[in-house]
Design goal:
Oligomer: heterotrimer
Largest sheet of chain B: 11 strands, mixed
Number of domains of chain B: 3
Order of helices and strands of chain A: HHHEE
Structural class of chain B: alpha+beta
Largest sheet of chain A: 2 strands, antiparallel
Radius of gyration of chain A: 23 Å
Chains: A mainly alpha, B alpha+beta, C alpha/beta
Helix content of chain B: 40-55%
Helix content of chain A: 25-40%
Radius of gyration of chain B: 29 Å
Number of helices of chain B: 16
Chain lengths: ~100, ~475, ~475
């Protein structure tokens, strides 16, 4: 499986990571190498097998524990915003969001 | 060329909980920016989600209320996209296996009953808010709302037209408030709808390409938006064009919808089961326990009213718009005034009371007249003590704070004259004084009758029982 | 003292032979002397550590001391600490100070341990050589031209060089065990869910586990007694009765069934590695353990499965690093879209970006079924292999790594080569199983070789017991690293 420049552009966009024109070829090569590795999976017969999203899925019965509906967090805005790149009047500032 | 407007509604209901869906931060409206955003809500590195029991229980309540299937095992999934009000860069939602599947919502459109199937209802967390007002080239992000529990309720595309869609939305709104899972405050964003709108020629089997109008937070805007969008699509198709699938926003100032995201940005949410959360397992015992704690559902009440009180379905649907109204109705019947029939109480509640509440924008919980006072007033009408018209005046006084209808009747001298002797006397007097009118009536002029009745009413200062006056007058004129 | 066990240090503190302040000062001095050439630490704050040491001494004087009170512990810079910055080895968090402590850190603090510093690591835990750190590579104390292994390379090197008597790490595909093997120390990855992940910056959520590194299995047991345990803030944290991880240190080896997977002794092994590991397994046999040849037929699948699942989860976990609320933000951008793109291009290193792109790809529309779902199905096959194996044996043993420490830069150009080196450590996390690495010898050039011991779910005490018995009879684990003589 080889990535086309278009595909690379698309995943870079989805991942919000800038890949410059100069970097494109190198990045594509490396990614293709990894894809070559993971493509081995295509040959595996997994018919009838359920996907496993939790490691103890197969052996132990685990279910989501539910938290009692209580307010347990106090206002720590100052502490949380201390290292923020840009914050004013309690709001995080970003370039204008256009809908 | 007849067109059919096909609508599907996705409603986002904020669930009534103290804390957020996956964090212990407070879930109240209106706090100062970012004072209700915990480390988990801000997505600080290393933080993890833990699901809120009350939110799950609310979802189960909803599933029971619409007779949906409650999934024994459902999964939380990540919906990945970048937006400044989405701190993790993904929203925790449910994708392949939602907590509720199927279900039905019944409602009235213009006195006709309609039944809509739901596709599903699933749990997810709300995003924060972007504020643009006080900044020029910047937006301010407030994460107080980030992580608020939402139940997203999705219909099949079975709604036809804007009116029907809004009627459904109203019914759903009433239902989620009824069962106590949502406060229904649309100004605060507790209940928001997206409308999926497409058009097709009547008789066509295939659905047209749809556009999604997002974030409609008023019923009026919803109706206007759907109507505009349907017109827009019809015009395009009539001109020979085709509809581009889009996400659109409704601009209330201009009464139009416009595209929200550009084509290039077509989203790929890359859903996958959230590895930080385990499958949600719900047992029969859980469902039974929650079912037992639920109030009588609107459906059940409607059935009971229709059978027990023999009321028409439409009247019943109005009475059961909210739990408060239904309770008020039941309490007024139970107040002990035998003369108050269900039909009488229903008519007044759905008529006079409803219109007064509408004028003042009141909710039933804030009704200034007690059910007992209301019932007493109605019994005075029923037993002839006062006329319907006079009752309306008494009601106005009671609305302003007067508790006892009898005191108002006495104070304003509103008691009807129902004594047949007294009425006969006045009728005789009027007939005697208006020989010409009598002649005109006997000559066939019906208008003369009304004039004579009017004179009786005037002579009695409006207190004569109109029904009796009519009957007496007819009798005397005939004889 | 630099070579003492944790219990010996505890005893010395209790007997007032040394104070926490003195002990901490000893290790800080060692760091000053050696870390310049090893680069095992990203952050050391002497005043911060000594202040904690003073508190520990105070506690002891009030009779409120436990086994770890006053003992310095180095923490992988993936654990959030309020008092010290947490960088995750990345430019993205180079200036980040967490406003809260990780659960693991809270446990150590409650036990009175001293935060010795934050150790270097592969960026966001993605790597097996500690060469991807924004703060420069860590060097192996046995040969500073070689890698210590990764991603917990800093922690492994710190313990190996005796700059810290104990350290914490995390293991997703081998990141505790492999550096332990390459650096000649002992390291344990517990069963998934035993150590809380709250405050442990996420790489691959369904694989990550925190665990200890130290000089011996007995020390690991002591550290586990503090680190392990339920945390309500982590939904994947398991609620289980508390256990003493040292309860089986004197394990009776007679009759113990030890599985040797034939797939772990194939052609890719360096001959010296094979020899040392075989020697070790023969020792167990000599003690009465029964060696059983087993097969884990889907072993070869583990690497591709891992390199679908881990990047997929990572690509999502790292989306929060967007320059909006914390961490690095690009200096120049014209609009929001550019801010995102530049921030992430600048903040992340090459390997991290590569894995995010792979992860994004395997989750994307049209590829999800063929890659992600397929990998999650194959994962079950791997778990099944182990389930069948553990029906026939109590423990599984084999080499931790096919090679000893390789030269810095040797594999950096070929990511796939690097990935294939993880072949023996990747399977356990996929199944959520515990794994341990202890030193079992040296190759011809004097580089350490690691023996991996795997067990069934929650078999840590038994694994540590087998390791402890071995360490009582051997001294590989006591040798001082060449570049860090005592």
């Amino acid at each position: 499986m080889s990535l086309t420049p278009d595909q690379l552009r698309r995943i870079a966009l989805l991942a919000r990571i800038e890949v410059s024109d100069a970097e494109q070829r190198g990045v594509t090569e490396r990614l293709n190498a990894v894809l070559g590795l993971i493509d081995q999976l295509q040959a595996v017969d997994t018919r009838g097998i359920e996907p496993m999203s939790h490691p103890l899925d197969g052996r132990l019965p685990v279910r989501q524990r539910l938290r009692a509906d209580e307010v347990t967090e106090a206002d720590r805005r100052e502490a949380y915003q201390k290292g923020a790149p840009a914050a004013e009047k309690g709001l995080y500032l970003v370039p204008k969001v256009i809908e | 060329m007849a067109w059919e407007i096909v609508v599907g509604i996705e409603s986002h209901t904020q669930l009534l909980t103290r804390s957020k869906m996956f964090s212990g931060a407070a879930n109240a409206f209106g706090a100062a920016p970012n004072t209700q955003a915990s480390a988990v809500d801000i997505a600080l590195p290393g933080t993890l989600p833990v699901a809120n029991l009350a939110a799950i229980e609310h979802a189960i309540r909803f599933g029971l209320a619409v007779q949906g299937r409650i999934s024994a095992r459902s999964v939380f999934a990540r919906k990945n996209y970048f937006y400044p009000d989405l701190p993790k860069g993904y929203q925790i939602s449910q994708y392949e296996i939602p907590i509720v599947q199927g279900g039905t919502v019944r409602f009235f459109v213009d006195k006709a009953e309609k039944s809509i199937r739901l596709t599903r209802a699933h749990l997810e967390e709300d995003a924060g808010k972007s504020l643009h007002e006080n900044f020029t080239d910047l937006s301010g992000i407030d994460l107080n709302r980030a992580g608020t529990p939402l139940l997203e309720i999705v219909t099949e595309p079975e709604l036809r037209g804007a009116k029907e869609a809004v009627a459904y939305a109203r019914a759903l709104h009433a239902l989620v408030v009824w069962i106590g899972i949502c406060d229904g405050n649309m100004q605060e964003g507790s209940f928001r709808c997206d409308a999926n709108v497409s058009v097709r020629k009547i008789g066509d089997e295939e659905l047209g390409t749809r556009c999604e109008i997002k974030n409609l937070n008023s019923f009026r805007f919803m109706e206007q938006a759907i109507e505009f969008e349907a017109r827009r699509q019809i015009e395009i198709l009539q001109d020979g064009g085709s509809i581009e699938q889009q996400t659109r926003l409704y601009d209330a100032d201009r009464n139009e919808t416009r595209p929200m995201r550009s084509k290039e940005d077509a989203q790929d949410y890359r859903y996958f089961p959230d590895p930080d959360l385990l499958p949600l397992v719900i047992t029969e015992a859980d469902i039974e326990r929650i079912g037992a704690s639920m109030p009588e559902l609107p459906e059940q009440k409607r059935k009971r009213y229709a059978e027990k009180f023999d009321l028409p379905a439409y009247d019943v649907s109005l009475l059961t718009e909210s739990r408060e109204k239904a309770n008020y109705f039941e309490q007024s019947l139970a107040a002990g005034f035998a003369a108050v029939t269900p039909k009488l109480a229903a008519n007044w509640l759905n008529g006079e009371i409803a219109s007064k509440m509408n004028d003042e924008n009141l909710a039933f919980a804030a009704l200034p007249v007690s059910p007992e006072g209301f019932a007493k007033l109605l019994s005075r009408v029923q037993d002839g003590t006062i006329s319907q018209k006079a009752a309306k005046d008494v009601l106005t006084e009671m609305w302003a704070g007067q508790r006892d209808p009898d005191s108002v009747i006495a104070a304003k001298g509103l008691k009807q004259i129902s004594d047949s002797g007294a009425i006969e006397k006045i009728v005789d007097e009027v007939l005697a004084a208006n020989a010409k009118q009598v002649e005109d009536y006997r000559a066939g002029k019906e208008k003369a009758f009304n004039s004579l009745v009017g004179q009786v009413m005037k002579r009695s200062q409006g207190k004569a029982n109109p029904a009796q006056v009519n009957e007496t007058m007819r009798r005397k004129l005939a004889g | 003292m630099l070579n003492s066990t944790l219990s010996a240090l505890g005893a010395a503190l209790a007997a007032k032979q040394v104070s926490a302040v003195e002990l901490t000062g000893l290790f800080l001095a060692r760091i000053r002397a050696l870390d310049g050439k090893l680069n095992a630490f990203i952050t050391v704050d002497e005043e911060h550590s000594l202040a904690q040491a003073r508190v520990a001494d105070e506690r002891r004087s009030h009779g409120a001391a436990g086994p770890l009170t006053g003992i310095p512990v180095a923490h992988k810079d993936i654990y959030c600490t309020r008092g010290l910055r947490t960088t995750c080895g990345s430019r993205m968090l180079a200036a980040y100070t967490s406003p809260y402590d990780a659960h693991v850190i809270e446990r150590f603090d409650a036990a009175g341990a001293i935060q010795l510093g934050k150790t270097n690591m592969d960026e966001f835990a993605m790597g097996s050589s500690n060469e991807t750190s924004h703060f420069g590579p860590v060097r192996n104390p046995w040969d500073t031209a070689r890698v210590p292994g990764g991603s917990s390379g800093g922690s492994a090197a710190a313990v190996a060089a005796r700059m810290a008597p104990a350290a914490t790490g995390t293991d997703t595909g081998g990141s505790i065990r492999q550096p332990a093997a390459l650096s000649g120390v002992s390291g344990l990855k517990p069963t998934y869910g035993v150590v809380s992940r709250y405050g442990m910056i996420a790489f691959a959520s369904s694989l990550d586990q925190g665990g200890p590194l130290a000089k011996s299995a007995a020390d690991l047991a002591l550290l586990m007694n503090t680190m392990a345990g339920f945390d309500a803030r982590d939904s994947t944290s398991l609620e289980r009765p508390a256990e003493d991880y040292g309860r089986e240190l004197n394990l009776n080896l007679a009759g113990l069934r030890i599985g040797l997977p034939k797939e772990y002794f194939g052609d890719g092994l360096e001959p010296d590695v094979r020899a040392c590991v075989r020697e070790a397994t023969r020792w167990f046999e000599g003690q009465g353990a029964k060696m059983i040849e087993i097969t884990l037929p889907n072993t070869a699948l583990a690497v591709p499965v891992y390199y679908v699942i881990a990047p997929a989860e990572a690509s999502s976990n790292l989306s929060r690093f967007d320059g909006v609320r914390y961490g690095h933000r690009a200096g120049e951008y014209a609009d929001l879209a550019e801010m995102y793109r530049r921030t992430r291009a600048e903040g992340f290193g090459t390997e991290v970006k590569r894995r995010i792109l792979i992860g994004t790809y395997v989750l994307s529309h049209g590829y999800y079924d063929a890659y992600y779902l397929q990998a999650q199905r194959a994962r079950r096959l791997i778990a099944k292999d182990f389930a069948e194996a553990f029906a026939r044996c109590d423990l599984i043993m084999g080499p931790t790594s096919p090679t000893t420490a390789f030269a810095l830069g040797a594999k950096a150009d070929d990511p796939v080569q690097m990935y294939l080196n993880d072949i023996f450590t990747i399977p356990a996390p996929l199944a959520g199983l515990p794994g341990l690495s202890i030193p079992c010898g040296f190759d011809a050039t004097g580089l350490p070789v690691g023996l991996q011991i795997m067990g069934d779910y929650f078999a840590e005490a038994k694994m540590l017991g087998a390791a402890h018995r071995y360490q009582q009879a051997t001294d590989w684990h006591l040798r001082a690293a060449r570049e860090a003589p005592l």
